[in-house]
Design brief:
This protein is an alpha+beta fold. It is built from 6 helices and 17 strands.
Length: 240
């Protein structure tokens, strides 16, 4: 009897809302995932007749995709759980929310738009550097930022040895002797990228908020609140 589908095990786990593909790979490597009673390997494929368990719990092959937008506040981590006992973005979801995970990460002290879903394909599309999906941030740094410093950041700077940021758009919206506010548009998402970019030119960032993914905005969503995405918004993200 022909199998109806086959997909890589990390994609299967992502579609169950277990974790992102990258985090799912870690779960497999840690030996927490069994495929048909045997320890799974990262390269394994899952088909309709296979049994997959995570920490002893059998996962269903039936998936109902869910999509949420959170206006993430400061003081929480963008993970499903935290071994340090800190608040996570999952704490803001309604009690009837399905098993979803955050798409990408915002730093502990960064605010703004975060998508949560169990749609592994969409999560991969939104986070893959190949997609080059623009993400817009409101950034505030201490003091005045010179034209030379701004142009260095726009052109790309080396934030770690051998790691150079892509060109980006930076527009100053307000400036005085105490601070400078800017709109920064990135097409990649390296760890603490914006903070590191400004550190390279000698400036300290004291506030970051992601306001847009593509043209999708927070639409008046209050800090710390969450809502389901509309069908139009889901369609838009899938076709970015």
């Amino acid at each position: 009897m022909p199998r109806k589908y086959a997909m890589r095990i990390n994609k299967f786990l992502a579609e169950q809302g277990v974790a992102s593909r990258r985090e799912s790979d870690k779960l497999v490597q840690e030996g927490r995932v069994l495929l048909n009673g045997k320890r799974a390997n990262p390269g394994d494929d899952v088909s309709a007749g296979d049994t997959v368990t995570l920490d002893g719990k059998t996962l269903s092959h039936k998936v109902k995709y869910e999509y949420y937008m959170l206006n993430k506040p400061k003081g929480c981590v963008s993970t499903v759980s935290d071994d340090k006992g800190r608040k996570t973005v999952m704490d803001f979801l309604p009690a009837n929310a399905g098993r979803v995970f955050p798409v990408g990460r915002l730093d502990y002290d960064t605010e703004g738009m975060l998508i949560l879903t169990n749609d592994g394909d969409l999560a991969y599309r939104l986070t893959s550097p190949k997609s080059e999906i623009p993400k817009t941030y409101l950034v505030r740094v201490e003091g005045v930022v010179s034209a030379t410093q701004l142009n260095r950041i726009r052109a790309g700077v080396e934030i770690e040895k051998g790691v150079v940021t892509k060109k980006c758009k930076v527009t100053v919206t307000e400036t005085n002797k105490n601070y400078t506010k800017m709109q920064v548009v990135l097409t990649e998402g390296k760890n603490r990228e914006i903070r590191k970019m400004f550190e390279v030119v000698g400036k300290n960032v004291d506030f970051i908020k992601r306001t847009k993914i593509g043209d999708l905005t927070l639409s008046g969503l209050d800090r710390g609140t969450v809502r389901r995405l509309s069908q139009e918004e889901i369609f838009y993200l899938k076709n970015l």
